[in-house]
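Design review, sub-item: ligand-bound model
Attendees: FS, YL, KQ
YL presented the inputs for the S-adenosyl-L-homocysteine complex:
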Amino acid sequence: MHCLWVFVLLENIRVVLVNTSHPGNIGGAARAMKNMGLSQLVLVDPQDFPSAEAVARASGAADILDSARVVGTLEEALVGCRLVLGTSARDRHIPWPMLEPRECGVAACEQAQQGAQVALVFGREYAGLTNEELQRCHFHVHIPSDPAFSSLNLAAAVQVLAYEVRMAWLAAEELPLRPEVVVEQDDEPVTADELESFYAHLEQALIEIKFLDPVRPRRLMSRLRRLYGRSSVSKLEMNILRGILTETIKAARGQHQKQEKVDV
Ligand code: SAH
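KQ shared the predicted structure:
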């Protein structure tokens, strides 16, 4: 017997395809998703969509294409997401927290069960995701393919991860109904878009206090993204950090009023 949360769970997991060039791959991804019970498809700046080729490759999954959301930037695609998992066929310069596909399925289901929105992000056929895009993700997921020929077809990569999500979902379905996790609003972890505006604020403060040289930024922001990305900062903690940044910027600009002496 399905419980309500089990139904809702898969709807909280979206598949994000970035700048796809072949519409056939979008159709193939839609089919792979529907086979595994996923329905939320977000397309970031697709090169050719809508398209008859996508519908043909989707087979019976054209409904996923019809309800797909098309957006201009990855940032828009990730609004509201508490967990962002980025896929990559290659190793990158900055080692990032990694998950195996199996762990990725479990983590996605666990978060989705708690009501959080989760994104699985896939890159371009020819160039994958940029380092900047990968750094917007909490974790990287690599399908352990043969290193001599590591890059899967985009729709095939979607199939592998959608399958892992389904396996985790089926395992969760067997468990007795878990008590609903009540999270105070302030204790909720921040979403990807909230983290992005924090990074912009942090960068501005670091420039103002001359810790970061915008001409030679090196990898400072990447390293800080990695640090905060793995800290599951709550909304309350984020407010504290933002408050510290606001005051730091004021201090750097000499805008702090002298504290009035208060007689107690
Ligand atoms: N030439 C690109 C490959 C892109 S394949 C590159 O070297 O990065 C298109 C997309 O499929 C990738 O961006 C990724 O989202 C997914 N993908 C392909 N192979 C993968 C693998 N082994 N592990 C994880 N994702 C993979």
